[in-house]
Specification:
This protein has one domain (2-200). 67% of the residues lie in helices and 0% in strands. The protein contains eight helices and no strands.
């Protein structure tokens, strides 16, 4: 049991660090898109299939889909109602973008496109990591084991409390739902991430 809880804690800490970066970036890139000429440049492209970027190889549709992902990811973290969608497919499509464009349309559009692609890659990685962590948690029936403990009790073999563990598991479950077009239960997931910063200091 001790090995399982330590592994769970380490896996979750790694993901929470990544999620902390992601929550800042999804808001920043979305805000930057609307504060620069990128939004008018992309909107002005003639068709969904028109190339929009050189480096990330986005079409207009890839770009707008990635912006939609970033918008709703920010809502997810901020306890707002999200618009569901197959964001995993959006991220995978962005990863394998194949649009061909000879030169950048403008600096903001190109730069934001690079940031959106990295955001999509990060979403894919955390989605896969969270699947593995949830399997570890449920396959070993950790939830049943700690259910009898007080929420502030330290989980045996780790440094996390029962509350920190359960809130992290809820966050990972809902993030997976978000990515896979499932029903998302809103919550203050920003606070969950902040709570886990305590363990980074230990």
């Amino acid at each position: 049991m001790q090995q399982i809880t330590v592994l769970l804690q380490n896996n979750i800490k790694t993901m929470m660090t990544s999620l902390a970066t992601m929550q800042r970036e999804c808001k920043s890139v979305y805000d930057t898109y609307w504060k620069t000429m990128a939004n008018t440049t992309v909107a002005g492209l003639s068709t969904d299939a028109t190339p929009a970027t050189v480096s990330s190889k986005f079409t207009k549709k890839n770009y707008i889909d990635a912006i939609t992902l970033s918008e709703n990811l920010n809502k997810f973290f901020q306890n707002s109602l999200v618009t569901t969608g197959d964001y995993f497919q959006t991220a995978v499509t962005a990863k394998y973008g194949n649009a061909v464009l000879g030169s950048a349309l403008d600096v903001p559009t190109e730069s934001i496109g690079d940031r959106l692609k990295q955001l999509c890659l990060d979403c894919i990685e955390i989605y896969r990591q969270s699947q593995n962590t949830l399997e570890l948690y449920f396959d070993n029936e950790v939830g049943d084991i700690v259910a009898v403990l007080d929420s502030q009790r330290i989980v045996y073999g780790s440094e996390m409390t029962v509350y920190e563990l359960s809130s992290a598991i809820t966050l990972l479950q809902q993030f997976n739902n978000f990515m896979s077009n499932g029903a998302v239960t809103t919550g203050d997931y920003n606070s969950t991430i902040s709570t886990w910063s305590r363990l980074d200091e230990i």
